[in-house]
Amino acid sequence: xxxxxxxxxxxxxERFEEFLADVEGLALTAYTVPAFTALDLYLLIDMNRDIAVxxxxxxxxxxxxxxxxxxxxxxxxx
Length: 78
What we know:
The chain is of the alpha+beta class. The chain has 3 helices and 3 strands, in the order βαβαβα. It has helices spanning 16-23, 39-44, 63-77; strands at residues 6-12, 27-33, 50-57. The chain has a 3-stranded antiparallel beta sheet, covered by helices on one side. The longest helix has 15 residues, at 63-77. The termini are far apart. The mean pLDDT is 87.
């Protein structure tokens, strides 16, 4: 875990399983984060419709792969 890094995403609750399937090959793990533990998350999230997810990337995951995931989820689909 010393040579990996993480990202935090806010996704719709109903699309959580789909998001996990998309990060499965790229991430060591992905887990939900209680939004109230970080003020910036708390201010960004709609508790009724969204969920915060922390993704811990595999060391071999490239920035290009992460950008492709971001594009799919936040520029095209979301």
